[in-house]
Structures are given as structure tokens and as C-alpha cells.
Amino acid sequence: MTQFDNSYARLPKEFHTRIAPELSPAPEVMLWNAPLAEALGVSDWDAPMLAGNVIPEGADPIAQVYAGHQFGGWSPQLGDGRAVLLGEVLTEDGRFDIHLKGAGRTPYSRNGDGRAWIGPVLREYIVSEFMHAAGVPTTRALAALRTGARVQRERAYPGGLLVRIASSHIRVGTFQYFTARGDEASVKILTDHVRARHYPQAKDTLELYAEIVKAQARLIAKWMGLGFVHGVMNTDNMAVSGETIDYGPCAFIDGYSPKAVYSSIDQFGRYAYEQQPSIAHWNLAQLGSCFVPQMEEELGGQHKAIDALTEVLNAFPEAYQAEWRAVFGAKLGIADPNEADLPLIQDLLGLMAKDGADFTNTFRGLLDGSARDWMLDREAFDAWTPRWEARRSEAWQEIIAKASPTVIPRNHRIEEAIQAALEGDDRKAERLARVLSNPFDLAEDDQDLTHPPTEDQMVHKTFCGT
Ligand code: AMP
Ligand code: MG
User: Fold this and answer.
1) Which of 172, 184, 231, 343 has the fewest CB atoms within 10 Å, i.e. is most exposed?
2) For the CA of 80, the nearest atom of ligand 1
3) Is the pTM of this model over 0.90?
4) Taking each helix axis from N to C terminus, what angle separates 378-391 and 342-355, rounded to the nearest 10 degrees?
5) CA torsion angle for 222, 419, 234, 199 (degrees, to 10)?
6) Helix (H, G, I), strand (E, B) or coil at 8
7) Domain ranges of the chain
């Protein structure tokens, strides 16, 4: 029996709207995450329940309200426009939201239809489960469904629904929503909720903020280590839990370029690969400003509050650098990387960028000597190699084998799986999901998934297209 406890639905009415998911005409499971279902105690849920046609006993479905900066521009009211939070389940591992993305219109849908099509649903399923398997904090995917509805975008597509699991769906933009309305009482309630739920070790608001800053520094460094470009790092797409959330036009880098951008709506490269840490820092500044009024009360004065929050915010770059160094040090097989190792790491990245070397295969190829094959300027790589050999740890092979996956969800493979699914064949999507759930250890039969795209397979742009 699934055990529900809907703590967010119990918050005051300003936080959400009670709403049932819209009926899906003919729900059908495309991808199913059996181990996760088991952990959540929902193994017996069938397609109608996963789609929200049948509400499980104990659930209290709501749409959550939030606001956000989108590409730097302020939107005072967003919210779950195409998703319903079915409820929170309690498990041995803690409390988890069960969230139905693509569940129909809500009061926050604005002009949207509240629906998703199967393409973005499959992408989010595959990528989020890969991120989890690669050790990156993330929302997870319990199931990808066909709804049986048609969804109109640039053409009609089969409707899809993602059953998403998260430790919560509270965003930087959730705080901003109440702050912008001058509703300090709600900011305080939200702060207490987040502290109890995610950071019980934090003694006060300042410590809570410091924990959130640290969690983001850790998260973004992990993204960078996989060549991940989120694509829409708006403040409404940043979870205060430190989990990756809202996979839209995201992509992984094939041939390395620090300026990589894939999203069709990111014209100016605001959310390019190399911008991600500074954007996270900017988003965290927005969050910090939401804490000013309550800190003022706690510390007795606005200046004191701003100074204290600024100090925490200013710790982000250094915290991020330390996390980044640990991530990339491990990718070079260095157990205890320090400041002095930065040139070694940067120089390799510089060579990779100059040659557009495949990010994943070069790093993994350090294990078996194949890294050199991905370089054009082999002389430069050969000059770099002895410096690396002199520095790497004794257990370098074990370290690299755990730090650099052999296989990632390459954009062209995801596209290929989506195209097949549009023709009713889910086997490619199933294969990707299966292989990517164990990305450090690849069977001989699956080696083809490590190949970078050929010129005509290359995906240059990804679309939100939800
Ligand atoms: P995103 O940045 O894609 O996470 O979405 C930004 C906002 O647009 C969120 O408030 C979503 O709920 C809303 N939204 C996106 N797609 C739809 C849709 N098809 N129908 C209604 N709302 C949507
Ligand atoms: Mg979003």
C-alpha cells in the first residue's frame, strides 16, 4: 500500500490550487522503471493510475504556483501549467513527490494546452535516469506514457505523460513568487518547509541559504563533468533541493566546445555550457534577495541581513571551483586534486576545444589510450601526456572508470528513438533507457552507442516543443 503524506498540499491556499489531472483517453505505458516503482511502493500501479485517470487513495492532487526569471526577464506568475503534483509518498529513503507532467490544463496554464507529446517525455525519461545512474542529483522518471490524445504543435503528435519523481518541486521561483507579492508570511512558511524537508541540519535561514548554495555548486560541477547543457536555467527551473529539474531542450556535448548551445530559443547563448556556473550564481542571488526581510528580523537590520547573505552568495565561486576540480581531477585519475593541478586539466580541455574532440570518448579514452585518437593535434596531446602520467594517482584507472561514463544519451540517439516511437516502435527508447542505467559498464553489443554522430546525424538544435 502506497503511503501518502501530502505536506505541500497542507500549506496555505496561496501555495497551490487543488486540481485533478485531465482524463487521458487511452493511457499506455511506453517506459517503466520497475526498480524505482518498487522503492516507492507503487509496483502495482497500472496505466490509468499512472496517467492520473484514477487517483490513488491518500493522494491530494494540486498544481503548485511559482514565478521566475526566464532568460533574465521577470514573469510574476508561472506555476504548474501542464503538470499536477499527485502527492508525496513516504519511503525508507524519504519523501518523494509523484508528479504527472503533461496532465492537462491548470489555473497556471496561461495559453498552453497543459499537454506534452511523447518526444520531450522520452527525452526527460532517458536523460534524467542517465543522470541518476551517473551520480548526478536529479528528478527521476517512473514511467513514460502515451495518453492516446493528439497534441497540436507544429503538427499533430501523439500525447505523452511523464510520471516524475523528485524530493520536491520547490524552485527558486517559488520563493520569488511570494517575495514579489510582498507576502513575507508565506516566504517564511516556505523557508521553514524547505529547511525541515531538505536541510534539517541548517539552524537558521542563513545556514539554509548556505546549504542551497553549496548544493548548486556541487550540482553544476557534476553537469560540467558530463558535458551537460541544461538549456533553460531559468529561476523557475532551479530546484532548491539541488536536484536537476525540468529537462527541456537539454543536450550533451559531442565534440567539445565550451560555448556549446543547443536550445533553439537560446539565441544569445545565455545558457551555454561555460555560462552555467555564472548563471547558477545569478539565480542564487535572486534567491538570496528573497531571504532579506526575514534575515532582517533575525539579525536586526537590513544592512546586516544583506551583508550576511552576500557573504554566503560570494562563497559560490570558490565552492564551485573546488567541486569542479574534484570532478575533473577524478576524470584524470587524480584522487586528491589541488590548485596546482588546474593547468593540467585546463590544458587538456584547451586541446579538446581546439580540435572539437569528443568530450565523452576522450575522457573515457584516457583509460585505454584511445583518447589520442579523438585529437587532431596529436603532437600537442603527446606533449601533454607525460605531465599527466607524472601526476595521476596509483589507482588512476579505477578512479577514471568511476568518473567518466563510457556512454551518454547522445542527442542523435535520442532523436532516433523519438522518431521510432512516433512510428509506434519503442524498442530504441527501451534500449537507451536500459543501457544508460549502467553507463560506466558497457556490453560489447552496445558499443555502437558510444559513436559520435556523423555530420548528417548531428543535432545542432534542440526544441522545448512541450
Ligand atoms: P519550462 O521552462 O518549459 O519548464 O516552462 C515554463 C512555464 O510554462 C511553466 O510554468 C510551465 O508549466 C508552462 N508550460 C510549458 N508548456 C506548457 C503547456 N503545454 N501548457 C501549459 N503550460 C505550459
Ligand atoms: Mg519549468
Assistant:
1) 343
2) 12
3) yes
4) 160
5) -50
6) coil
7) 3-166, 323-403
